[in-house]
Design brief:
6-stranded parallel sheet, 7-stranded mixed sheet, binds nicotinamide-adenine-dinucleotide, 345 residues, Rossmann fold, binds zinc ion, 28% helix, 18 strands, alpha/beta, single chain, 12 helices
Length: 345
């Protein structure tokens, strides 16, 4: 193996990413080296591409971006047990410490010292990725590389959707981005009654209806209350999954929930946004913030569901060889794509 590789690098503090040569990472005794096969482009990568305020304050330059990947183990560190060369895998991109109270309690996803690959540490948009063996998630044969490459955002959807019991419940999802759409598929899979998904972008609502058995509502043109009445729901939605980061969407969700309803918040508002707290208090609504995925319970559940009929493949709308990465980013920047997958083989 030559000791140089191709990598998509945030090389300069300005808009764009650059395909460069970089050294193949050296692994430590508890790491593995993964040959990357497919990667997914995330909204986070778009922030880094655009070099917005968040990116400029968070990401050191130069940085290999990317955290959504599938590949194959090509080298294992001296102290790594239970993983072998040739193992197909994806992996958790949040690198956690083992000494915090949360980690020692087994709640790895709540470790306050979490660092993200492709954000704080060299990432997966490269021919090779170094990853702690702890973070590796082996892939069963039933999960191919392109699905393996979107397990990170599917994990966000699963973690959010499984925050509350959805069996027999009426669920409102605000935001038909890739994660909202996949959450719709998960909600149906686990037995929700009605799943309504809202957006203001008709392309995305059309995609949602192709991927999952959900009721799409364009809240830019249509009245959500009409859908509620058409579905013969008596009081409103039992559970809300907020996946837009838009303040009006959250307001509408609070308005459309039953007394005692529950909200899982994944969407990230661009800054501080005003919230009508008294409405939330008087409706006795429970709100849960959701970050990342549960390490590794979310991974276990999503792989089990994928092996048992959960199908999100149609959320992938664009596939490009990695040398055409600019087209992939253009598709994402259009705001109407589903998942975009880059092929590194
Ligand atoms: P996305 O930006 O692709 O999708 C958001 C969608 O919300 C867009 O289609 C947009 O048109 C829609 N929207 C805008 N205004 C709306 C309104 N008033 N009502 C309904 N929909 C509206 O995002 P994504 O990649 O699917 O991710 C979803 C959200 O989750 C984003 O806010 C993202 O930043 C956040 N996120 C959070 C975590 C976490 O760990 N908490 C992880 C990944 C993503
Ligand atoms: Zn992601």
């Amino acid at each position: 193996m030559s000791n140089q590789m191709k990598a998509l690098v945030k090389a300069k503090p300005e808009t764009g990413l650059w395909m460069e040569r970089a050294p193949v990472p050296e692994i430590g005794p508890e790491d593995v080296l993964i040959r990357i096969k497919k990667t997914g482009i995330c909204g986070t990568d778009i922030h880094i591409w655009n070099w917005d305020d968040w990116a400029a304050h968070t990401v050191p330059v130069p940085m290999i971006t990317g955290h959504e990947f599938a590949g194959e183990i090509v080298e294992v560190g001296r102290d790594v047990k239970d993983l072998e060369i040739g193992q197909r895998c994806s992996g958790e991109g949040h690198l956690i410490g083992k000494t915090s109270r949360q980690s020692r309690a087994g709640k790895f996803h709540l470790d306050p010292g979490t660092r993200g690959i492709g954000v704080n540490e060299q990432g997966a948009f490269a021919q090779f990725l170094r990853l702690p063996a702890f973070n590796v998630v082996p892939l069963p044969d039933a999960i191919d590389d392109e699905i393996g490459a979107i397990l990170d955002p599917l994990g966000n959807a699963v973690h959010t959707a499984l925050s509350f019991d959805l069996i027999g419940e009426d669920v409102l999802i605000t935001g038909a981005g890739p994660i909202g759409i996949m959450a719709g598929a998960v909600a149906r899979h686990v037995g929700a009654r009605h799943v309504v998904i809202t957006d203001v972008n008709q392309d995305r609502l059309d995609l949602a209806a192709q991927v999952a058995d959900v009721v799409p509502v364009n809240v830019g043109t249509d009245d959500l209350a009409e859908t509620v009445s058409n579905l013969k729901m008596k009081q409103g939605f039992d559970v809300g999954l907020e996946m837009s980061g838009n303040q009006r969407a959250l307001d509408q969700m609070v308005e459309s929930l039953v007394m005692g309803g529950r909200i899982a918040l994944l969407g990230i508002p661009p800054g501080k946004s005003p919230v009508d707290w008294s409405r939330i208090v008087f409706k006795a609504i429970t709100i849960k913030g959701v970050y990342g995925r549960e390490i590794f319970e979310t991974w276990y559940k999503m792989i089990a569901m994928l092996e048992n009929g959960l199908d999100v493949r149609r959320v992938i709308t664009h596939r490009f060889p990695v040398d055409e990465f600019a087209s992939g980013f253009a598709a994402m920047l259009s705001g109407s794509s589903g998942k975009v997958v880059l092929d590194w083989t």
